[in-house]
Amino acid sequence: MQQYLDLLNEKQLEAVTTPSQHVRIIAGAGSGKTRVLTTRIAYLIEEWGIDPTSILAITFTNKAANEMKTRIENMLDGSSLGAHISTIHSFCVRFLRSEIRKENYPSNFTILDADDQKSIIKESYKILNLESKDYPIPKCLDFIANHKCAGFTPEDAMSKASNFYGENMAKIYKYYDDRCHQLFGLDFDDLLLWSNRILKKYPYVREKWQNMFHYILVDEFQDIDNVQYELINLLSNENTFLYVVGDPDQTIYTWRGADINIIMGFTKKYTDCKTIVLEENYRSTKTILNGANSLIKFNKNRVEKDLFTNNAVGEKIVHFTAADDDREGDYVVRRIKDIIGGGEYSYKDIAVLYRSSYLSRTIEKKLMDSRIPYVIFGGIRFYERAEVKDMLSYLRMITARDDLSCKRVINVPKRGIGSKTLDDLFELARDSHTSIFNSIDVFEGSTKTKNTLSNFKKMVETWIDKSVNMTLEQIFQMVFEESGYRDMLELSDDPKDEERLDNVKELMNDVVNFANSNPETKLEDYLSQVALYTDMQTSNNTDYVSLMTIHAAKGLEFDNVFVIGMSENIFPSARTLEEGVRGLEEERRLAYVAFTRAREHLYLSDNNGYSYSSAMTKQTSRFIKEIDEEYIQKIGMNLVAERTYKPEATGFTVSKTSKYKVGDIMIHDAFGEGVLIKLSDDGLYGDIAFPYPHQVKRVALSFPKLHKKEK
């Protein structure tokens, strides 16, 4: 153990060895929090003699949980295997498998993923005679989640409804809630809410689990919400050692419920709490770190800290302003070529980050034009691909035979079972208070359809019987072959089916790996794990530029980072600016997270083109101006006038004279004809008076769809 303690700096060592019962670790970006957390667990086991089974460590991604397990096992030669290290949702699954029977639910309940939820909402449209365009699925799911998390039942929602729209939303909520119960299904919100409800309702259950875990450690504590915090409190008693790790400056998920006040107010709830601040950064150069520090200091709601590093000073942060989107993309690609041409870095050492997904369009096009390999992270994830979900639904037919899985695969491959038959089956099942699968036996239809349905049911029942004495790999192969899914892909002339086949084969690898790691596991355990696990990404090329939103980049680091789209109303976004100081501080934290992903070089870019999303010309983000001048180099264009673009240069040459003057008649493709009534001091913008309803608008004089009317 001592050899691992010797690797820690003074503050890290204090954080690992503190005897305090309640501890808050404020871990700055790149300060080695994972090392501290894993060494703390190893220290509890090795030096304090703590039983590993009494330790519960909560993380927020499966990837982080697996990394922690591996590190601890390496420290202790595998003796940490008894500690429960998982995401909070994985813990809830374990808890509910043990305790949910008390609520008259089976322990093999189905975990409903996003597609399952959408399917139920689509069902509600038919039952309630509603149009999806009037009640979009995302709005319905938000309505349901918000009411559930606030403790409001469908009946409460109906009583609160003040209009026809609200009443119909309450009806959709009611259908969704009833359908979940029919399916014995729980969505991700339910996993937490049902756990909390059981812990509150049954004191002896709460006491049992409090006595099970004497040491609770929570990672990424800045991103937990009130429901998650309630669970942690319910698992704790006056004897629990509670150890939380996070950084208020990296709270970037308030839009999905995270509450920065939880980590900020932790010391008020636990007055004996010891706070330890980790300020030494091991990731970035001094210049990048100091630039990020100068930005985040504009936030008021934070724990004061000043990160430092013993790394090299490094080069200045580069800020480039282009004329338009295309020129910004050209600049980024040119820089990437320069980086690769230097011979020191590979494509995998480069990331392009952006505030919103739509910003990737231009850079994708430029990368493709230059034949630079890239991967977008956060696109269609592995487990969300149609062929993968088909196979998982087939496997769920063995364990649960739920309606959602049955509807998905009953006609895949094509068996001649049309939507009318499915609708009739659904109605029959609903009237009989049973499942679609069970209603097949009493279905009345043509002889051909009845035989087809009967054969499908017999096939599944045969799988159920055979699977009892089969390994997970054997079950998967049986289903893949006998369902006809393999032939459907292998005999297809569609070139895309070759890739789909590879995805199914990769899923089988996943099944085999899971079985090898968990020899005593059951099929339902694998399906539970898959429903929770969403981190897997695949790529045929191991060397590529990574493109992703800043939210997706949390926890990652690269030698070279580009942050594009650094324009006002884009970053910070117009929506968050409407939220006032709270929204602005969240956006500034997001910028701070983006900047601190960079180890050696940080490039920030924006452009003066026209934004259709904000209906105005772009201006450089305030976050650029908040970076101390000492740490940033600004290049590119500063004025708009007569420009000549030079691809080999770092910017533009600008003539001193504008070709426009007050009084000119201007024609805008969208707003029509108007009069230029004012020029900005720098010549960048013009105030143009257009006819009603457009009135006076400030427009970039470089906007391509604006020109002067010729006399």
Please describe the topology of this protein:
Blueprint: H1 2-5, H2 10-17, E1 22-27, H3 33-46, E2 55-59, H4 62-76, E3 84-87, H5 88-99, E4 110-111, H6 114-128, H7 137-149, H8 154-160, H9 164-183, E5 185-186, H10 188-201, H11 203-212, E6 215-218, H12 226-234, E7 241-246, H13 260-264, H14 266-269, E8 274-278, H15 286-296, E9 317-322, H16 325-341, E10 350-354, H17 360-369, E11 374-376, H18 386-399, H19 403-409, H20 419-432, H21 436-439, H22 447-467, H23 472-482, H24 485-490, H25 496-517, H26 523-532, E12 545-549, H27 550-553, E13 558-563, H28 574-577, H29 581-595, E14 598-607, E15 610-611, E16 616-617, H30 622-626, E17 632-636, E18 643-645, E19 652-654, E20 665-668, E21 672-679, E22 685-689, E23 696-700, E24 706-708
Parallel strand pairs: 1-7, 1-8, 2-3, 2-6, 4-5, 6-7, 9-14, 9-17, 10-12, 10-13, 11-12, 13-14
Antiparallel strand pairs: 15-16, 18-19, 20-21, 20-24, 21-22, 22-23
How does this model look, in words?
The chain has 711 residues and is α/β, with parallel strands linked by helices. The protein is 46% helix and 15% strand. It contains 30 helices and 24 strands. The strands form 6 sheets. The chain has a 7-stranded parallel β-sheet. A 6-stranded parallel β-sheet has the order 3-2-6-7-1-8. The longest helix is centred in the last third of the chain and has 22 residues, at 496-517. The chain is globular. The chain starts with a helix and ends with a strand.
